[in-house]
């Protein structure tokens, strides 16, 4: 492999990366990219490895020897510090990060996103190791504009909704709205990492993903995850489409999101990995501000794309409204809008996303159809036990 150059024209030295949560959605794509395009070595830590099995087996793969899986639960495993010490860089992706858990399992959510991340930060700081920590766009909470009267013209002014790393406030709902347990835990771990940087010189980068989506995200209930499980919206809607059920729009599907293709977002992470001088000490929004839709529009688009991909006719009523209380239970609340400012990532890393929402849905739903359609048909044909 020819020597890779960083953004300043210097050759990149091969490094060892301790990736925690490597078996998840983002981790699997990052491992794939690192194996296919770089000489770096990955110590992949997770409790599951189903999503990276194709990278681990067979032994004849060209990158065999550069990726090692360690089945570790970071809550209680004394091997963690040793693995962090062996690496040049630690990337922490481990988290409970599905909204259905935030209000129904708030303790697990807070422990996972704050308490369990503490030793990782501590070991990196004590051993002078670089850390890339995955936070979330949800630390911004609600936009300032959402508190203005519905008909206020200021709602259209970007100053009231664009989310910027170093100036926007973090606005969460009340404590009874347990939805915010995740955002609050992520915010506190960000503050701790920032303080370790300021007081103890920790070299850190914080990533705030804005709805990264693509193949291998979450699970399809009853196929490769629990039947009663509620994944994030891409997998919920994929499941509905595969089963030919109407897509459920929570509280009318009025919330707005910007979706970025996982493969675009992974490019940004690779730039952070390979350009420490430009990434250290920064918090980066990573998303695609051009791909904004309401959840209702997302449902319509996914229905159209899936109809093309599967060749199956559209349902007469492709979506239904459900209340958030019915869908998520007590204590749910929502982020209204997520438009990211990209000044910092543009300036530091020159990164921009490329893929349109239509194109990313087309490739993702093609994958979903190919991966799950047969299994769904079989499971639906089985008589259910009475
Ligand atoms: P994911 O659930 O697919 O991946 C998380 C992985 O961490 C899972 O494989 C899980 O098994 C592992 N994990 C959790 N607890 C662990 C523990 N105690 N020990 C070992 N492994 C553990 O989620 P993802 O979408 O890949 O997200 C990765 C990170 O990015 C998370 O920190 C999440 O909060 C953040 N994030 C992602 C998005 C997105 O758009 N996908 C948005 C905002 C934030
Ligand atoms: N949502 C929905 N129907 C579903 C699943 C989710 O209307 O079947 C909505 C949810 O209320 C939220 C948006 O879709 O407004 C995005 O949800 P997701 O779970 O992807 O996570 P979030 O972006 O809120 O972190």
TrEMBL record:
Keywords: Cell wall biogenesis/degradation, Cytoplasm, Lyase, NAD. This is UDP-glucuronate decarboxylase. Residues 17-287 form the NAD-dependent epimerase/dehydratase domain. Gene3D superfamilies: NAD(P)-binding Rossmann-like Domain. Signal peptide: none annotated. Its main location: cytoplasm. One of its GO terms (biological process) is UDP-D-apiose biosynthetic process. Belongs to the NAD(P)-dependent epimerase/dehydratase family. It catalyses: UDP-alpha-D-glucuronate + H(+) = UDP-alpha-D-apiose + CO2; UDP-alpha-D-glucuronate + H(+) = UDP-alpha-D-xylose + CO2. Its EC number is 4.1.1.35. GO terms for cellular component: cytoplasm. PANTHER family: BIFUNCTIONAL POLYMYXIN RESISTANCE PROTEIN ARNA, UDP-D-APIOSE_UDP-D-XYLOSE SYNTHASE 2. The keyword NAD applies. Pfam families: Epimerase.
């Amino acid at each position: 492999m020819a020597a890779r150059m960083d953004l300043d024209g210097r050759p990149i030295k091969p490094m060892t990366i301790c990736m925690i949560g490597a078996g998840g959605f983002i981790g699997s794509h990052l491992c794939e990219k690192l194996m296919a395009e770089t000489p770096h070595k990955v110590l992949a830590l997770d409790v599951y490895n189903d999503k990276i099995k194709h990278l681990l087996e067979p032994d004849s793969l060209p990158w065999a020897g550069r990726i090692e899986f360690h089945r570790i639960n970071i809550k209680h495993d004394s091997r963690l510090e040793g693995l962090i010490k062996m690496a040049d860089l630690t990337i922490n992706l481990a988290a409970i990060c599905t909204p259905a858990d935030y209000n129904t399992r708030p303790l697990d959510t807070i422990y996972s996103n704050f308490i369990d991340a503490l030793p990782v930060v501590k070991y990196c700081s004590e051993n002078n190791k670089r850390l890339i920590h995955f936070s979330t766009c949800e630390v911004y909470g609600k936009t300032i504009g959402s508190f203005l009267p519905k008909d206020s013209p200021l709602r259209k002014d970007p100053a009231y909704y664009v989310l910027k790393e170093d100036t926007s406030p973090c606005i969460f709902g009340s404590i009874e709205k347990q939805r915010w347990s995740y955002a609050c835990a992520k915010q506190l771990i960000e503050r701790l990492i920032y303080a370790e940087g300021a007081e103890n010189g920790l070299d850190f980068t914080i990533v705030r993903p804005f709805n990264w989506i693509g193949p291998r995200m979450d699970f399809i209930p009853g196929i490769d995850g629990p039947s009663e499980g509620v994944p994030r919206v891409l997998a919920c809607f994929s499941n509905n489409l595969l089963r030919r059920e109407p897509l459920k729009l929570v509280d009318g599907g009025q919330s707005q999101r910007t979706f970025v293709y996982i493969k675009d977002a992974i490019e940004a992470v690779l730039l952070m990995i390979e350009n420490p001088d430009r990434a250290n000490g920064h918090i980066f929004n990573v998303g695609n501000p051009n791909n904004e839709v309401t959840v209702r529009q997302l449902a319509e688009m996914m229905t159209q794309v899936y109809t093309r991909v599967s060749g199956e006719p559209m349902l007469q009523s492709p979506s239904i409204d459900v209340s958030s209380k019915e869908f998520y239970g007590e204590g749910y609340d929502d982020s209204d809008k997520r438009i990211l400012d990209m000044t910092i990532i543009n300036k530091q890393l020159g990164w921009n996303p490329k893929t349109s929402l239509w194109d990313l849905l087309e490739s993702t739903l093609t994958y979903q159809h190919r991966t799950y359609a047969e299994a769904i048909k079989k499971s639906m044909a089985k008589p259910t036990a009475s």
